[in-house]
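Why run this: before we spend reagent on co-expression, it is cheaper to look at a predicted model of the complex and decide which construct boundaries make sense. The entries below are exactly what would go into the expression plan.
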Amino acid sequence: MIYRETGQFKTTYASDSQLFPILQDRAFVIGALVFAFVAVPFLASDYLFRAILTPFLILSLAALGLNILVGYCGQVSLGTGGFMAVGAYAAYNFAVRVPQLDLIVIFILAGLCAALVGVVFGIPSLRIKGFYLAVATLAAQFFIDWAFARIQWFTNDTPSGSVSAPPLSVLGHAIQGPVQKYLLVLSIVAVAALVARNLTRGAIGRSWMATRDMDVAAEVIGIRPLHAKLTAFAVSSFFVGMSGALWAFVYLGSWEPLAFDVNRSFQLLFMVIIGGLGSILGSFLGAAFIVILPLVLNQLPTALGIPLSTAMISHIEFMVFGALIVFFLIAEPRGLARLWAIGKEKLRLWPFPH
Amino acid sequence: MDFARHRLTVAFLALLALAAAAPMFLGVAKFPQWLEVALGGLLTGVLYSLVALGLVLIFKASGVFNFAQGAMVLFAALTLVRLAEKMPLALAIAVTLAIMIAMAWVIERVVLRPLVNQEGIVLFMATLGVAYFLDGFGQSLWGSDIYTLHVGMPKEPKIILESTFDGGVLVDMEDFVAAIIAAILVAALALFFQKTATGRALRAVADDHQAAQSVGIPLNRIWVIVWSVAGLVALVAGIVWGSKLGVQFSISQVALKALPVVILGGFTSIPGAIVGGLIIGLGEKLSEVYLGPAFGGGIENWFAYVLALVFLLFRPEGLFGEKIIDRV
Amino acid sequence: MKREYRIKAAALALAVAGTLGVALDALAQSSKEIFVPVLVYRTGPYAPNGVPWANGFVDYLKLVNARDGGVNGVKIAYEECETGYATDRGVECYERLKSKHPVAYSPLSTGITYALTDKVFGDHIVLITAGYGRADSVDGAVFRWNFPMLGTYWDGADILVQHVKAKGSLKGKKIALVYHDSPYGKEPIPVLEELAKREGFELLKLPVTAPGVEQKATWLQIRQQRPDYVFVWGWGVMNSTALKEAIAVSYPRAQIYGVWWSAAEPDVVPAEMAAKGYNGLALGHSAEKTDPIHKDMIKYLYDKGQGTAANKSDIGSVLYNRGMLSAMLTVESIRAAQKKYGNRVVTGDEVRWGAEHLNIDAARIKALGVEGMMQPVHTSCADHGGVHAARIHTWDGSEWSYTSEMYTSETKYLAPMIKASAEKYAAEKKLPIEDCGKAS
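The model came back. Tokens follow.
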């Protein structure tokens, strides 16, 4: 009843093909954005910004990138951590060697570097499919980890191999404090989500989905597999690289190659699977779930008054994590986004059952 | 193998062999030293094959890429080493085996049966979830320390051919005994598959699920059996790796090395797992010792994967794997 | 259909509950207690070495509360946070526990130290990195909040070379460094390269990818290159694997020297008798088990069932002692702060002053019950380390024993290296450099 689109007529092509054709959807998204930009800076505590909102936003950007590759184009990739590392170190090198560049420009350049590397490591996807490709992307992951640990030039010849980001400033305005960092990340992620949504709605997104569903048939009707797969790798790595740069500069501040190891790749893949493959909203939902779950698990025993050692809490985290993944895969293999969609469907009919 | 059709693959393998022997031609290494590294590599490769065997078994029979194999190896090793503290070793092994079979049954019931017709990626993610669960469960039950597993493996190396070569050639006896154990296991598995009724049923299921069902082979029971056999293989791998490294958390990460092995050998071939393991082990150690210093060291982690990747470009199904046929 | 619907509804509910269950902010922290967070790892590949250190740290804090009633009457509140040696989890623990007004962190990880160094400048929290951390943070003019007390890796590298030089000139010899491929393992390389130039030995660098279970190729290379000495800079399972592989290639254990984090019981016990002769750096202490402090631990904690370690026999092991000393340095810094600012709950700034003006002399060491386990510590603005001494201890198959006198690191060439590195950091981060002459 609330969600009915009855009475919403479109009179122009432009209004018919807009991003959120239903008024309620539009209102909700704009409301959420306004809330995030205007209300949250006043309502949330320091801890929420630094430990929850900022990492959630950055990781959802990475999940967005991975979702484009795995969800929309069907190419399984376990090398996401490596591409994040490329973005992070590229941003560091630009910031240190060309300090005149503005931070946003640095992030975009970092994304472009990661896109380039992504294309190079995506070339095997033309021959290899499925699990084989997943293992091939592991080659990218381990090679990139090694390269940043070994090649001194990337770390500006720091003997310890640990690099730290210079102070942040956008258009001359210094970014200090958790609220400003949150707003910076939020703006970048909002723009990126918009770009991703439009890409997946367009011809290029359709070519990705065709390749995912049946690549031979797609080739037969004229979609060039080279073009589709490599653009998927490029766009995906662009987002992932940018998120890597954000993670390093805004969240960690100081990092070493181990911060982007294979566990990070698995974490992102979990986000995408649990959130929902082939869905922009799913990337956000999955990221939220994965970021908040360990914190909840950590606090729950103390909140319930059960004294457990940190080791046991950590083990239980692993167990609950694994069990939840299996549970979600059984209950709803299409992820949280599908649950959301089902909810919306029910809302259209509410209060009527059918 | 049709040599004419697989010209590229044969050429690639020949190139590999040349590259492997190159350090001797270039004068960087003398034969006894090269032999040491090569032997060490081959023996390590056999250890990787042990883990890869479990992967291949499960993929062959149920089409599931079992990412939890490493976690199973760790769980089996942990259970064994902690039980062995309280009871004689033989009894501990028997009890651990029983536990692994029970675990196989639980996994089949809880994870596999509800996901029966899902795509491969979903099953793969489910096994990832199982891997995480087992990691946490094993450590919460048995602890996170390094546990020493005493199964009587020799620790001191043996120097052979001292009279022929100056300094002799070093052979790691523990790895050597492990290789013999692996060979016995493979022989036993081969016998099992060829000579017993259950083995034949397993091969039938691996060939075609529906056809096997239509002749009356119970799929669910077969899957439990397959996962149990994989559990046995995991136990043997756990004993060998645990004795070598000590039973600790990182053993489950060693399983990641088994992935290039199955790629090279083919996901559905047991001899492929062995041959793939040998090639990966050999390539890894030779590259680290002779190529590594030029790059600053530490390359063996990614070299195996890059080798597998390059190989895939020429032969996407692996050395012994079934040719991939796409139905459009 | 109904069942499927119920499962889906349950999944949705779970997801919503999970996402809504945001971690609660810390509330129940009494303003009458000084809060000391304990960043530990009791799981993962580094747990075998992390657990005894954590036990020692927490035991000492418990002892101070139980035996002394706190520091000058003010009790210490503590909370463990699991980091798994991962930098991002360490940062998350740091952020989460910051709301409880901690005075000092000891992250037990050089990687996490690097990440937190940037943050403590703004948050005014002390980082006490006893025996690890940034070697250049000895320079208190730049690193106002870092305190690498008891010794840094540059000290350790220098002392090791001093010791092997005493066995015979190093000119023309070969020393191999088997190191963990992380900031921790790479830290001694600048000093070792400098010393290689001065003393005329060849340095062979052999990195081991984390977590360090693949070392066969490394030690086969060592067997072929035949270095005169091997220095091991590992952590967690890398150490025991290194020893096992050394045994497998028959490299004489007496020629292997581990840094103080690679020379403890979890590293040698897995190899048992075969590790006999392995040497390591002892950061002032070894595996003393019968000092007055240990007796106090048993009397006040373990006899009452309050001890942290699983077995009483773990008390006094090498890493347990080091954790204990780390906690002790934190408490002494708090005590020094209270001496100046009053016997109350002191702030981070005040504890920083305390840490910078530590003066633990021989009499105080004896009073603390750790005589023979520590050298006198005297910190200042120019020297946040306080002491730069270590000696060698050797494993005889069942226990450690000292096999050298105390060495002190050579400041003559180390000091300019530290200063240059600290100034580079300050320039990169645009930080002000304090003038130590004028600092209070």
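Chain C touches chain A through 53 residues (CB under 8 Å). The longest strand of chain C covers residues 34-40. Bring this page to Monday's planning discussion.
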